[in-house]
Amino acid sequence: MFGKRSAGATAAPSLSPRGPAALQPAPRNKPEPIQPAVEDRRSVPAETAARSEEYYQMKSMIFGALIEAIDLSQLAKLDSESAREEIRDIINEIISLKNVVLSIAEQEELLDDICNDVLGYGPLEPLLARDDIADIMVNGAGRTFIETGGKIQLTNIRFRDNAQLMNICQRIVSQVGRRVDESSPICDARLADGSRVNVIAPPLAIDGPALTIRKFRKDKLTLDQITRFGAISPPGAEILKIIGRVRCNVVISGGTGSGKTTLLNCLTNYIDHDERVITCEDAAELQLQQPHVVRLETRPPNLEGTGAVTMRDLVKNCLRMRPERIIVGEVRGPEAFDLLQAMNTGHDGSMGTLHANTPRECLSRIESMITMGGFSLPSKTLREMICSSVDVIIQAQRMRDGSRRITHITEVMGMEGEVITTQDLMVYDVLGEDAAGKLLGRHRSTGIGRPRFWERARYFGEEQRLAAALDQLEQTNEGHVA
Fold first, then answer.
1. 344, 385 Cβ separation under 8 angstroms
2. CA 19 to each of CA 22, 83, 246, 438: distance values in angstroms, whole numbers, following the listed order
3. What residue spans carry the Basic and acidic residues bias annotation (predicted)?
4. Does CATH number 3.40.50.300 belong to domain 223-475?
């Protein structure tokens, strides 16, 4: 299928075919994107030595010769490993025919680079292969940043030009049936492993396409693991498990990168396996382990500007699908009203996340999102609806040292006049920092004897567990530093 010219040639002749066994040339125009070989990512460190302009010129020359020499439609029919081996064989021959002098290490690096360009996501592949990276931020072709260990750092990863970066962005979003171009320059998508992707392209992005990837962890975190990381104390984690188990309506609040979605994934572990759960997301990234889960995803408008399916459409449709729990990945707008309606009409245990810095601000944001959606309800009526729908607010925060903490477990109690009243079950206090700049603090009880959901815990047979967790949390107040 991919015949190759003899490596013994003394000159550097054209790679166009000379017989039935020769390579079939592809058209010179831009090739169609090929399914990325996500499973075959090479683990190459991100902090490779800076490459020279000569390297990129040589790579561009060899890449051009490869595209002329290979039939991409035939290559697409091969599995990823076979396709990679075919490309490597042809590149080796091109290097020989072009009399390019490279060391073995340089040749291997070039082979991997070009294979990634053709089969995967180009220079992003080594970053996607690393498990210690939380975010990848590409600011045009020449600057790529990563977040690892809670800190952002510049890498030496770069793209050939903005056209290559845009092509990779198109390849990513096309996998989920979306597009990004001048007429639709903003796009949310996801990778095959669930990683969340945002692309904003020129003319909105002035210095070239901006690509942001929130990496999806292959090993799904549990509450026990984030407890070991210090995000919450053991008795606090026990309270969260009970909250998930006894079907409290939960809103997880926090800033960008505070761990809201991770925490939502953790809480869903405590949903019974006989419950029908429906998830609604802009880009599907939740990974529920229950057997009866229906995953829904929004859809942007088509080229004519029609056919969009909004989050509100999904949440409203959920109510016709006999859900027992509705999970909304992120509440951003008027769908907050429909989620409250669902929470208040027999769908106990529903959950969602939203951006807010405190539990009190979370309640205000729910109210403002509903108001901006065009609902002309009196403020008091709206607040009464919030009180009767939301049971618990869990506040997550990314601290200034890069660590993540659950800072509040807060109950929504009711109304006093026209004001929503809340009570904190647990809060996190920052006590100082160590010599390395790591913050020291503790999770402490606020001394609440019985939370509002005590009767719900009794109904589910969890009151003894809840009492023990509250007692243990109270005992940690004296002198404990986490």
1. yes
2. 5, 22, 71, 67
3. 38-49
4. yes
Report DSSP state, residue 24: P
Could you give the CA distance from residue 449 to residue 454 in angstroms, rounded to a whole number? 10
**Cα 51 from Cα 408, distance rounded (Å):** 47
Q: Please report the pLDDT score of residue 85 as a whole number.
A: 80
Task: Flag whether pLDDT at 199 surpasses 90.
Answer: yes
Right CATH number for 38-214 from 3.10.20.740, 2.40.160.40, 3.30.450.380, 1.10.340.30?
A: 3.30.450.380
Angle at 138 between CA 178 and CA 105, to 5 degrees: 110
381 vs 88: which has the higher pLDDT: 381
**Angle CA(133)–CA(139)–CA(141) in degrees, nearest 5?**
105
Domain boundaries, the chain: 38-214, 223-475
Residue 203: cis peptide before it, omega within 30 degrees of 0: yes
Strand partners, 281: 297
User: Is this model's pTM higher than 0.85 or not?
Assistant: no
Residue-level pLDDT at 21: 35
pLDDT for res 390:
94
Q: What is the CA radius of gyration of the chain?
A: 27
